[in-house]
Amino acid sequence: MADESLRTATAMVATEYGDPTTVVAARTVDIAPPGPGQVVVAVRAAGVNPVDGKVVRGLFGADPAALPRRIGSEAAGVVTAVGDGARYFDPDDDQRRDICVGDEVIVYRAVGGYAQALLADDTSVHPKPAALDFPVAAGLLLAGATAADMVGAADIRAGDTVVVHGGAGAVGTVAVQLARKAGATVIATAAPRNHDFLRALGAIPVAYGEGVADRIRGAAPGGVTAALDTVGTDEAIDTSLALGVPPTRIVSIAAFGRADDGIVIVDGSGGDSKRRREEAIAGLIAEATSGGLVVEVAKTFPLAQAGAALDELARAHPRGKFVLLP
Length: 326
Fold this sequence. Notes:
Layout: E1 8-14, H1 20-23, E2 24-30, E3 38-48, H2 50-56, E4 69-70, E5 74-82, E6 87-90, E7 95-98, E8 104-108, E9 117-121, E10 125-127, H3 134-138, H4 141-153, E11 161-165, H5 170-181, E12 185-189, H6 195-200, E13 204-206, H7 212-219, E14 226-229, H8 234-242, E15 250-252, E16 264-265, H9 271-290, E17 297-302, H10 306-313, E18 321-325
Parallel strand pairs: 11-12, 11-14, 12-13, 14-15, 15-16, 17-18
Antiparallel strand pairs: 1-2, 1-4, 3-5, 3-9, 3-18, 5-8, 6-7, 8-10
């Protein structure tokens, strides 16, 4: 069944590689009818993530043949057209069911989420509970699944004492909460302005910067057993090693240049990392809907201001997710 009303849409694209404020522009794009196992989604909100800015800046490759390049890794919206056999897993029914026009959904991973509408494979479409608002839903899964991957890779469990480097960031905030739910004591590095927030999540906050290892030792006299690095700085890795954390329990999503230290790098590209992220999705949605998982939306932007949102995200910015509203 299909609603043929969405044949074109406004999308924000990278016209070149470079500064998002100058190269991201609105374009009218065709929305193809959904093929087998596909749906068209009218986007109500799109999550803004650092990875999107890296794509725009050409940090993952600057092939001119890929331009103009669609942007956006996650979104939430309403299904407007459904191809043959499109289905998703519905945790309420504990089974796969047909996707229908009018269903509210989350798309992760999206291709071209910065748009009024997008075409998506059903493997990337997940039912959105009515109680979960669109902006939160659109900013939930990329950071949430990444955090779940880190916690799983470090094998965090009751009795652990874990340091989360960058605990007030989008991924760090979820990692703190998931580690606490696993029964661990959590120490989170963050700027002092975010310490009260982290305490409310059940973490012990410490300021990063010079002397951070001593501050962590003071907060964890029994020692630290694992570390989750969301920032990728040498300080985060050097501090974790100095605290005596085994390299195999130092998990990073950003310290690619430190792999020779024996730490674990996870990027969701395959194997166990991809599996952990996929398996976390239903639980993340349920926890965010019930209020058991805090996901803050710091700012919303009109779709046309996508370049400005990416620029601000790369600089000092308020705690929480940035979201575009088409």
